[in-house]
């Protein structure tokens, strides 16, 4: 095989994997150990410090995105239809993913193979910002889980709390603009991923 002398852009250069969307290769930006929020720099593909986590919040799971997905028109329309609210648009980012693993993975900037089991339907300032939940393939504890309903409720509650509060400033009277309308199952997660793939092709792939 001819070697690749250049690092692929994590969003555009990585493949989803041959079994997508049932099994995916995803890119991890953030771990539960991180006290700084890291995020992919869309232009370069390098990891950038987005902001220090000013308060006590830390992501309860590995956190990153699904390569070659985009939350655009189809994603926004689907969210609007499901929640019965007109005017929701995609947030313009790749589809986010939270990965459950029993073994601590202590740094991001890596690729994992995961299996989607559900998701959180999150809306941020009128934009669809779904959080797909997946398990690390082969994980001895979480790897047997097929549906998000099998995940301990306490862990789902932690995800709820993190995403509803991670942007809040306790010194501000604002209650925030983020809402989670539902926790959905694997079948709906697959739909959300497929809409993200559709939006990516429409946005970035020339024919």
Explained architecture:
The chain is of the alpha+beta class. It has one domain: Inorganic Pyrophosphatase, CATH 3.90.80.10. Helix content is 21%, strand content 29%. It is built from 3 helices and 10 strands. The strands form 2 sheets. A 5-stranded mixed beta barrel has the order 1-4-6-9-7. Strands 2-3 form a two-stranded antiparallel sheet. Helix 1 packs antiparallel against helix 3. The longest helix has 19 residues. It is globular. The model has no long low-confidence stretch (mean pLDDT 91). One of its GO terms (biological process) is phosphate-containing compound metabolic process. One of its GO terms (molecular function) is inorganic diphosphate phosphatase activity. Its EC number is 3.6.1.1. This is inorganic diphosphatase.
Helix content: 10-25%
Q: Summarize the helix and strand pattern as letters.
A: EEEEHEEEEEHEH
How many E strands? 10
Question: For the report, how would you describe the main beta sheet?
Answer: 5 strands, mixed, barrel
Shape: globular
State the name of the first-level CATH class: Alpha Beta
Provide the spatial order of strands within the biggest beta sheet: 1-4-6-9-7
